[in-house]
């Protein structure tokens, strides 16, 4: 157990260090004053719309997790699940060196209801897997627009990913076989909301075109974010490097990326309220 904690602490420390190094490199190339200037003239209406879309994406994410919990016979009420979801966001964003958000959910539900930690872990894993498959599918669909000459390859990869995900679920997680497509539908909605959130952030600082490429990079950064703390640094570095190959100003893309981080941090703070207040988790099971 002690070795596991040390290994996790080192992993988290490594992610934080990666974020710091990548941000340092980006801001040696793009003065922060350029980012601040864009923020100074931000369109508040677009910024507010982006924040609302992000919040909606998290509510749909919580609903998706509720779907997987229910399939495993964990009938947590939606209100309790939503509170638990934001609490997990808080732990993931603000306590990187401690227990992770998903691990904390498992701990609380196991302690409160005696639910199987293994089955809870499976539910959370499939919830995350659904999101990853959705990201890959949307990347393929957007690639059809930007790379039409490879449309058959892209369509083939999309179908392959969809089918492979289904058979993996059917083989290893039979409880979730029947809800595979429904869970994927929720995930596609989540990612669509986050893409439009990022587009509105771009529009808030004056960007009016190139949204397909921005969206592709934004989704790619969601996958690569696993190697850094909350994706910070990776998104900015990816946008900075991509500016060499696509026709956009890196200062704008980095500014929008940092705004996305600020919005994520803001809504993650909602979890602090549920941390301070004693959670009253309830199920929908009949008394």
TrEMBL record:
GO terms for cellular component: plasma membrane. It is found in: Cell membrane. It is a multi-pass membrane protein. Its main location: membrane. Pfam families: LPG_synthase_TM (PF03706). InterPro entries: L-PG_synthase/AglD. Keywords: Cell membrane, Membrane, Transmembrane, Transmembrane helix. The chain crosses the membrane at residues 21-39, 45-63, 84-109, 129-147, 154-173, 179-202, 214-234, 254-274. This is Uncharacterized protein family (UPF0104). It comes from Chryseobacterium taklimakanense.
């Amino acid at each position: 157990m002690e070795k596991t904690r040390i290994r996790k602490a080192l992993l988290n420390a490594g992610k934080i260090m990666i974020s710091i190094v990548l941000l340092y490199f980006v801001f040696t190339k793009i003065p922060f004053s350029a980012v601040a200037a864009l923020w100074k003239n931000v369109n508040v209406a677009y910024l507010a719309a982006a924040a609302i879309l992000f919040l909606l994406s998290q509510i749909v994410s919580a609903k998706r997790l509720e779907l997987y919990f229910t399939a495993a016979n964990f009938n947590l009420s939606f209100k309790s699940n939503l509170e638990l979801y934001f609490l997990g966001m808080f732990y993931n964003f603000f306590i990187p060196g401690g227990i992770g958000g998903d691990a904390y959910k498992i701990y609380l539900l196991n302690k409160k209801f005696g639910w199987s930690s293994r089955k809870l872990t499976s539910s959370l894993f499939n919830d995350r897997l659904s999101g990853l498959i959705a990201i890959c599918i949307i990347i393929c669909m957007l690639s059809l627009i930007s790379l039409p000459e490879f449309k058959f390859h892209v369509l083939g990869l999309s179908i392959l990913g969809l089918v492979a995900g289904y058979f993996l679920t059917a083989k290893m997680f039979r409880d979730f076989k029947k809800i595979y497509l429904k869970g994927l539908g929720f995930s596609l909605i989540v990612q669509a909301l986050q893409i439009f959130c990022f587009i509105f952030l771009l529009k808030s600082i004056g960007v009016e075109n190139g949204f397909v490429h921005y969206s592709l990079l934004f989704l790619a950064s969601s996958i690569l974010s696993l190697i850094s703390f909350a994706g910070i640094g990776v998104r900015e570095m990816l946008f900075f490097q991509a500016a060499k190959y696509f026709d956009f100003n890196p200062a704008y893309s980095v500014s929008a990326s940092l705004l996305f981080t600020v919005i994520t941090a803001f809504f993650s703070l909602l979890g602090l309220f549920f941390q301070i207040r004693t959670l009253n988790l309830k199920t929908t099971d009949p008394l």
